Amino acid sequence: MGNVHVLDHPLIQHKISFIRNKETGTKEFRELVDEVAMLMAFEITRDLPLEETTIETPVIKTKTKVLAGKKIGLVPILRAGLGMVDGMLKLIPAAKVGHVGLYRDPETLQPVEYYIKLPSDIHERELIVIDPMLATGGSAKDAIQSLKKRGAKNIRLMCLIAAPEGVEVIKEAHPDVDIYLAALDEKLDDHAYIVPGLGDAGDRLFGTK
Ligand code: PRP
Ligand code: URA
Predict the structure, then answer these.
(1) Is 208 a catalytic residue?
(2) Average pLDDT along the chain, 209 residues, taken 10 residues at a time
(3) Are the C-beta atoms of residues 156 and 180 closer than 8 Å to each other?
(4) 67 CA to middle of ligand 1, Å?
(5) Least packed by Cβ within 10 Å: which of 35, 54, 130, 206?
(6) Is the pTM of this model over 0.90?
(7) Which residue blocks in the chain are alpha helix, DSSP H?
(8) CA of 206 to the centre of ligand 1 (A)
(9) 64 CA distance to ligand 1 middle (Å)
């Protein structure tokens, strides 16, 4: 079964409080999402493999460690996932970025895929699927399915806020996928919005509605 990691570092919790607040405007919301994505990238890369190298300091020749060059791919789910890409790239600048376009039909609540463009070597990359919200889990479940269909082998899912219902859907459909969250909330409301949540992530990021 995939593990669920709640990355509840104090800085992340602090910033998530401002992100949730309905008084937070678009500019600040965007900046905070960017910052939290960067902090989460710091935590999610904790297990990246290292290798030994030899360098010379001004004092002596010494052995040190550098990243072993594991290839990473970021896959934001459009549109709200875009808000987390730059923050993550600040820490993982060599990552390639693929895009999956999905929206949740407001009537049926089912995800509809409208776009996909991925790095050609996804089968050899550690992919991090990113989306601020994991609500019913339908969008992330389908996005991950799409990646697997195209050869992806190692996938993690990173979201700001999740509902328990969405977490269960991913655990059931994709037991090989670890989930990284900044917060695990209480439940979904009758419109499948996360409670307490932050509202509509795409609208708050891009100032629509
Ligand atoms: C939001 C969010 C997720 C999805 C989560 O996107 O960014 O992708 O809903 O809901 P689910 O877990 O129930 O599938 P939305 O469908 O509003 O599209 P948008 O990003 O284009 O606004
Ligand atoms: N999508 C959002 O943007 N917010 C929610 O609470 C649920 C789905």
Answers:
(1) no
(2) 92 98 98 98 94 98 93 96 98 96 86 94 96 96 96 97 98 98 98 97 95
(3) yes
(4) 34
(5) 54
(6) yes
(7) 10-20, 26-44, 85-91, 138-149, 164-173, 201-206
(8) 13
(9) 43
Cα distances (Å, whole numbers) of residue 193 to 58, 122, 134: 57, 32, 10
Give residue 119's pLDDT: 96
* pLDDT for the residue 200: 97
Name the residue at shortest CA distance from atom 1 of ligand 2: 200
Cα separation of 155 and 76, whole Å? Answer: 13
Alpha-carbon span 194 to 71, nearest angstrom: 33
d(CA 26, CA 22): 10
CB 56 within 8 A of CB 67: no
Give the count of beta carbons closer than 10 Å to the beta carbon of residue 181: 22
Q: Does the Cβ of 194 fall within 6 Å of ligand 2?
A: yes
Angle subtended at Cα 75 by Cα 100 and Cα 156, rounded to the nearest 5 degrees: 120
In this structure, which ligand is nearest to the CA of 111? 1
Half-sphere exposure of 150 (CA within 13 A, CB side): 17
